[in-house]
Amino acid sequence: MKDMLQQQELRGYSVVTVAYWSFMLTDGALRMLVLLHFHALGFSPILLAYMFVLYEIMGMVTNILAGWLGTRYGLRLTLIAGLALQIASLLLLSALDPNWSVPVSVVFVMLVQALSGVAKDLTKTSAKIAVKQLASNRESGTLFRWVAVLTGSKNAVKGLGGLLLAVSGFEQAVLIMAGCLCVVFIVVSMIDKLDLGVTDSKVRLREVWSTSQSVKTLSSARVFLFGARDTWFVVAIPVYLHTVFTQTFSLNTQQAFFMVGAFLSVWVMGYGFVQAKTPQWLSSARQSSVGAVKAVKLWSAALFVVMLVLSSSTYLIGERASQLVFVVIPGLLIFGVVFAMVSSLHSYLILALTTHKRSTMDVGFYYMSNAAGRLSGTLLSGLSYQFGGLALCLATAVTMAAASWWFAQALSHMPKQV
Q: What was the pLDDT predicted at 54?
């Protein structure tokens, strides 16, 4: 009986992982498509950042609602709804007309991105909570391994999407992604026995606000962790690299698109590999939440140091792209490794900290904080790059990393076993 139950859990985990992979392939590609396409049309960094504002705002709202909906109606509904909305947003984006005026184009893309933001966080929250519940009956350490593999593998898959623009062009890339996602949507919809989520029709919307101090502290650390990443990663790095490839290496726009997409794809795949391997490398964190807390404090400090060194080096060199690129590229690689370790620990701890009954709502609350960090990072990325270039973006990211480290130090009163 136990073996049969574990086989059902493994099948459920496999279905959730494939659905999550498919969605994140389109999500990663969609952001890169929009960013590089409109940068090539001459949009300023601030306008590029504005295009993602509604995406992140809707993500914050959706995470709270996803936790509540998942508790009341089960996670299968929210997972399928996320896939359907992403298909709709991709099809809408394929209708974008390059002859539209700048204000019309910006508003249209913002609205489509808002729809995609809803889709992303419905899918993400559903997948992460499903892993918590599917791993609950297995041996200690399974939760950390499963969530690390889920998160790491989706980032590896997500990285592949950045190449689609150079290979297929904007409209064709969007339609290809929509077609692939339709296949996954049909498969998941046909699996009637995918029973996920705690269904409680009496739960009230106001109950989604977490009462756990540990969850609140970890969520605060998450806000600044992703703020530190996106402050320089959302707008600054893609635009900076595109400028380097076109001006320093004299590549044309299409060649620069390919190089930026290829580099960031490899970066994200490497980042995902590190996330997936984190439980294997940090055995003490895998064994107990106490070990995980110690690890997240250590690696949060390391992230701050990496950002501080990178920011200081940038200021010393200045904005000379030909020299700065030899600091930024290695810096990105080191940052990716450290950030992946911290992110993987965070993703595990939020699932370890919450109870089975409150898992959907606490995880929804936590990923609302994640979206808040992405929102602040997105806005600051556009503003910082517009007024101070990459140096100001990195200086802002250092402040964010310091705040994340500070909140991580407050994670002291934790349950000893998960």
A: 82
Structure tokens, 400: 């964010």
CA distance 85 to 83: 6
- pTM recorded for the entire structure: 0.80
331-366 per-position pLDDT tens digit: 999 999 999 999 999 988 888 877 666 777 788 788
In terms of DSSP H, where are the helices of 99-235? 102-134, 142-160, 164-168, 170-190, 213-233
* Distance in angstroms (rounded) separating the CA atoms of residues 349 and 109: 35
Decide if 137 contacts 228 (C-beta within 8 A).
no
Q: What are phi and psi of 415, to 5 degrees?
A: -65, 145
Task: Quote the strand ranges of 38-83, DSSP E.
Answer: none
Which residue positions in the chain have pLDDT lower than 50? 1-2, 5, 415-418
Is the Cβ–Cβ distance between 149 and 265 less than 8 Å? Answer: no
**Selection from 404, 4, 363 nearest residue 224 by Cα:** 404
The 10s digit of each residue's pLDDT in 199-231 is 555 666 566 666 678 888 999 999 999 999 999
Radius of gyration of the chain (CA): 21
For 269, residues 6+ apart whose C-beta sits below 8 A from its C-beta are: 155, 156, 159, 160
**Buried/exposed code over 33-43 (b: 16+ C-beta within 10 A; e: otherwise):** bbbbbbbbeeb
Place of tokens 């099809």: 91
Architecture of domain 2-409: Up-down Bundle (1.20)
